[in-house]
Amino acid sequence: MSSGKILVAQGGGPTAVINQSLAGVVLEARRHHGVSLVYGAHHGVRGIVNEDLVDLTRETSHNLEMVAGTPASALGSTRDKPDLKYCQEIFQVLKAHAIEHFFYIGGNDSADTVRIVAEEAQKAAYPLRAIHIPKTIDNDLVGNDHTPGFPSAARFVAQAFAGANLDNAALPGVYVGVVMGRHAGFLTAASALGKKFPDDGPHLIYVPERVFEIDRFLADVKAMYDKHGRCVIAVSEGIHDAEGAPIITKLAADVEKDAHGNVQLSGSGALADLLCEEIKARLKIKRVRGDTFGYLQRSFVGCVSDVDAREAREVGEKAVQYAMWGEGSGSVAIRRTGFYSVDYELQPLSAVAGKTRTMEDEFISASGTDVTDQFRLYLRPLLGSGMPDAFRLRPNPVPKILKI
Amino acid sequence: MSSGKILVAQGGGPTAVINQSLAGVVLEARRHHGVSLVYGAHHGVRGIVNEDLVDLTRETSHNLEMVAGTPASALGSTRDKPDLKYCQEIFQVLKAHAIEHFFYIGGNDSADTVRIVAEEAQKAAYPLRAIHIPKTIDNDLVGNDHTPGFPSAARFVAQAFAGANLDNAALPGVYVGVVMGRHAGFLTAASALGKKFPDDGPHLIYVPERVFEIDRFLADVKAMYDKHGRCVIAVSEGIHDAEGAPIITKLAADVEKDAHGNVQLSGSGALADLLCEEIKARLKIKRVRGDTFGYLQRSFVGCVSDVDAREAREVGEKAVQYAMWGEGSGSVAIRRTGFYSVDYELQPLSAVAGKTRTMEDEFISASGTDVTDQFRLYLRPLLGSGMPDAFRLRPNPVPKILKI
User: For a surface tag, which of A262, A335, B115, B260 has the fewest beta carbons within 10 Å of its beta carbon?
Assistant: First the structure.
């Protein structure tokens, strides 16, 4: 007989819809008669080891619905990446509170944490069901058609580039927009969905799946600028040279590293500024502007894909159903079943944990600086309904009188 | 008897609703029986002197409506700031094409151009009606309650900070968001409208109307960080020291200047990066992130205030009515008449031209780092309907078992 106690937590970078998954877990769990208490941990695994827990059974359904529609992690998040000892501490807290169902909403690192905690429970013959619920704007979880959070961030990026293209057409020059994504270029590639007319930008897209060479880059920019009289460029923050060294490290002398030992890429405009300086200096183009989309792309309120919101809710609900009626621990995965429909399944934690998906080759054009129609077909339904559309005036030139 | 020929053009930085004003001019003008042809100039005054004109009479009403809903300047814009000789060239083109009504949608520099062109026409006894139609995200035109384009940009900034605050609460640290605005802090101050709960960010707001001192800034940040365990900061790109030198010049050795002789503030992440480095180095806070909102705040598609769109359309329509039925040239101005209602009037071009409005003292708190309720009352109705709202979980702590 289960203790009926559940714990849910949120890890890693927030998304626009991660609270949908939280609400999905809590509301679905409270529907089950076997569930007595639904706890949440503040700031992910850190809140678990510190026993910083809240009782979500006492939250109103109405407020949970309102929180579901609010971006960023309502329980708080963490960048901690637990090692074995940390995971053992997590397990000790779960045991002390008699929690038999643990749900962790996060990326591939979070899946790895869930995997280790589940193993610890098994070793101790403790009846724990541990379920990983996918979330990441990077779309880099294996075994998933896509991950909740990515579609809304992709929508932001597409809308941002649609606007940047219009702005650049009004005041021509070169525009560089730097998009999040360390290893996976999905989010940067989403910029292509902001294009409508054939000469619209982004005219060039650089993803971490391809080696970045500054000379090649400058030649690309020059060719586009000569052709269109302007150039809009989407660049992933994770672009790197042939040795795998991030381009950003070529600029910054003092580079910050995160808890995972990775070079800090976000929260600085340095990469965009570096690329703009190169273009100005070597191509002698005057009007060159760079923007780094930074945290806006994952936390802007009011840019959510309804498809993403719905699926993020469902992966939370499904997680509870797998835990209650299923056989064991695992990671909820989204499978595409039609154009456009999805279904869910529970995959083994080891299939997701610590692994990184990158853009499939068929999504990247032969030039390496554009996406394919296959990618457009893949991404468009995820962006949801009500995507803004751009229109332009048709050319009806007036004959010149003075300057003929 | 009028020639019935009209010319409209767009100058300065694009906005989310400047095409509403364009559509307002064209559709209203085509309604008047005295009007035979409606021309548009590509890229503002530059297109006029180059006779790069299009016949908007041949555009469909339907497409004009679609273009009206599209951000950025559909005719193209320019940063040219005409001197007397340039204005005389403009007048020669108007005369050659027998244009007797000239509409220029732009900021205070554009108003100045309209003023000089109108004077040239008067000197030549040429029957020109020249009307300036207000537009600027900076909200820095005198004689206007507010200017079209500002409300939508303000909405973007408010939504961006609402999201940044949630993200920062989930992963605590210091967040610096740099907002456009050289002399006027209205847009930066709009960040305050993203606040809901008393401890929400932005916790500090720095506008160009107050002198920026780095030591005072660091003390402010430390106090807020000590109080909340985090700090969200809105900074105007135009912040300057007591001598009026932009803070950005203290960092960048090689500063770009625009056609108006101003230091280039946008299109670079340098100011945010500088402030973040100072906070990291001197306050020893580890997680410090900076974003520069850049061109997103004026060109993002899908973040438009319906109030702004409506008013931008009306100033275009009113401009034509003033030209057709009024007494002379002028600048259309928005007056607030109630809570919330507006009306329009034509003010003399000299009242607007080349002048800059900054934030009124009663809009800035005594601390100099926050806005007043008067500002909230001023701005809220402009943001329009459907503003996203943020919700949070209520605290229901679970008693600790292990760590008591």
Answer: B260
Chain A and chain B share a number of CB contacts under 8 A equal to 264
Fold match between domain B5-148+304-352 and domain B153-302+360-383 = yes
What percentage of chain B carries pLDDT values higher than 70?
A: 95
Whole-angstrom distance, CA of residue A330 vs CA of residue A323: 9
**Among partner residues B93, B268, B402, which is closest to A269 by beta-carbon distance?**
B268
Q: Do the Cβ atoms of B342 and B334 come closer than 8 Å?
A: yes
Q: Are A132 and A332 in contact (CB under 8 A)?
A: yes
Residue boundaries of the structural domains of chain A = 5-148+303-352, 151-301+360-383
Among the partner-chain residues A169, A269, A290, the one whose CB lies closest to the CB of B72 is A169
d(CA B228, CA B174): 11
Distance (Å, whole) CA A389 – CA B66? 9
User: Known catalytic residues of B?
Assistant: 138
What integer pLDDT is reported at residue B188 of this predicted model? Answer: 98
> With the C-alpha atoms ordered B318, B323, B324, B326, is the resulting torsion angle positive or negative?
positive
- The list of chain A residues with pLDDT below 70 reads 1-2, 251-262, 266-267
> How far, in Å, CA of B373 to CA of B365, rounded?
9
The distance of B171 to chain A (nearest Cα, Å) reads 6
Asked whether the beta carbons of residue B292 and residue A292 sit closer than 8 angstroms, the reply is: yes
pLDDT of B255: 62
Residues 9 to 48 of A: which have CB under 8 A from any B CB?
10, 13-14, 39-40, 43
List the one residue out of B122, B123, B117, B89 whose CA is nearest residue B103.
B117
A175: closest CA of chain B, how far (Å)? 9
Helices within B212-305 (DSSP H only):
214-228, 270-283, 296-299
Write out the CATH class of domain B153-302+360-383: alpha beta
Q: Determine, for residues A13 and B171 on separate chains, whether the beta-carbon distance falls below 8 Å.
A: yes
pLDDT at B327: 82
Q: Kindly state whether A58 is in contact with chain B, defined as any CB-CB distance less than 8 angstroms.
A: yes
- State the pLDDT at residue B268: 77
Kindly give the pairing relationship between strand A330-338 and strand A341-347. Answer: antiparallel
Of 3.40.50.150, 3.40.640.10, 3.40.720.10, 3.40.50.450, the CATH number of B5-148+304-352 is 3.40.50.450
pLDDT averaged over every residue in chain B: 95
In this prediction, residue B267 carries a pLDDT of 67
Q: Is a pLDDT exceeding 90 seen at residue B242?
A: yes
To the nearest whole percent, how much of chain A has pLDDT over 90?
91
Over residues B238-254, the mean pLDDT reads: 83
With respect to CATH, is domain A5-148+303-352 assigned 3.40.50.450?
yes
pLDDT at B258: 62
In whole angstroms, how far apart are CA B50 and each of B22, B81, B89, B112?
A: 20, 15, 9, 20
CATH T-level fold of A151-301+360-383: Rossmann fold (3.40.50)
Residues whose CB falls within 8 Å of the CB of residue A32, separated by 6 or more in sequence, listed in order = A320, A324
The complex's ipTM?
A: 0.95
B160 at the A interface (CB within 8 A)? yes
β-partners of residue B336 are B342
Which residue of the set A80, A109, A112, A138 is catalytic? A138
B181: left (phi over 0), alpha (psi -120 to 50) or beta: left
Q: How far is B395 from chain A (nearest CA, A)?
A: 7
Nearest alpha carbon to residue A206 among A175, A178, A236, A182: A236
Closest CB to A96: pick one of B162, B167, B401: B401
Q: pLDDT of B322-374, one tens digit each?
A: 999 988 999 999 999 999 999 999 999 999 999 999 999 999 999 999 999 99
Distance from CA of A364 to the nearest CA of B (A): 25
